[in-house]
TrEMBL record:
Belongs to the PROTOR family. Residues 9-22 have a biased composition (Basic and acidic residues). PANTHER family: PROLINE-RICH PROTEIN 5 (PTHR32428:SF4), TARGET OF RAPAMYCIN COMPLEX 2 SUBUNIT BIT61-RELATED (PTHR32428). This is Proline rich 5. GO terms for cellular component: TORC2 complex. GO terms for biological process: TORC2 signaling. Residues 1-23 are annotated as: Disordered. InterPro entries: Bit61/PRR5 (IPR013745), Cullin_repeat-like_dom_sf (IPR016159). It comes from Chrysolophus pictus. It holds the Pfam family HbrB.
Length: 253
């Protein structure tokens, strides 16, 4: 058997160097993923971030986006970070019912909306401009994992329920978040919850009041007034939206 040529030895050595380089890059990427994972979960656990950690996480996100793992970023964010984080928040309230559920959900929403959501947007600032946005993904996960997976409908339906303002804020903000595939079953479930705290409410399939759906609705636009006219059982209910359509140029008429 002939001995390998110098050319073959050189190719093998280069291949070994390339393999070691690939392994080192993967190890570095895995360490960066772990750092981002730990930082995000700490935010959900109310632990906060150490000094300068936000900058380090920003740099980590930038590095990952430049690697082959960057194409899986959105999937990882949804399936690992956001899902785990929302489960952490939900598990603290999932067994509550009635007024206790409403009060603790309101506190959970306040924490998420005021602390967690801004921090998530800060951590993943390097991906700003991509769709769906981090804000959109986070709100959708809050809706699907928390709002729609607790006994909220029952709590809102109780006769003496005291609905905290934060609950109404939560439902209306979540209502404004849409998925690319359009109206989904989860979105319609959310609308059914909104109908219990906002009346009248204009949903996907019509106008609803605390007494049930209206049979017909129309909007009349005029130069001076814009009113919503709702017809139900021979009754006409007018909700004044604005007093003047034009703000200038009519005083002489």
């Amino acid at each position: 058997m002939s001995s390998p040529s110098l050319s073959d030895l050189g190719k093998r050595e280069q291949a070994a160097l390339d393999e070691r380089g690939t392994q080192q890059r993967r190890a570095c990427s895995n360490a960066t993923w772990n750092s981002i994972h730990n930082g995000v979960i700490a935010v959900f656990q109310r632990k906060g971030l150490p000094d300068h950690e936000l900058y380090n996480l920003n740099e980590g996100v930038r590095q990952l986006l430049k690697t082959e793992l960057g194409s899986f970023f959105t999937e990882y964010l949804q399936n690992q970070l956001l899902t785990k984080g929302m489960v952490i928040l939900r598990d603290k309230i999932r067994f509550y019912e009635g007024q206790k559920l409403l009060d603790t959900l309101a506190e959970t929403w306040d924490f998420f909306f005021s602390d967690v959501l801004p921090m998530l947007q800060a951590i993943f600032y390097p991906v700003q401009g991509k769709e769906p946005s981090v804000r959109q993904l986070a709100l959708l996960h809050f809706r699907n994992i928390i709002t729609l997976n607790i006994k909220l409908e029952d709590a809102l339906s109780r006769s003496r329920a005291r609905v905290p303002p934060s609950i109404i804020q939560m439902l209306l903000i979540l209502q404004g978040v849409h998925e690319s595939k359009g109206v989904t079953e989860d979105y319609l479930k959310l609308e059914s919850l909104i109908q219990k705290v906002v009346s009248p409410y204009l949903g996907t399939y019509g106008l609803y009041s605390s007494d049930g759906p209206f049979t017909h609705s129309s909007c009349i636009l005029g130069e001076y007034n814009c009113s919503l006219i709702c017809l139900k059982k021979d009754q006409v209910i007018s909700f004044q939206i604005c007093n003047r359509f034009l703000q200038s140029g009519r005083s002489e008429e």
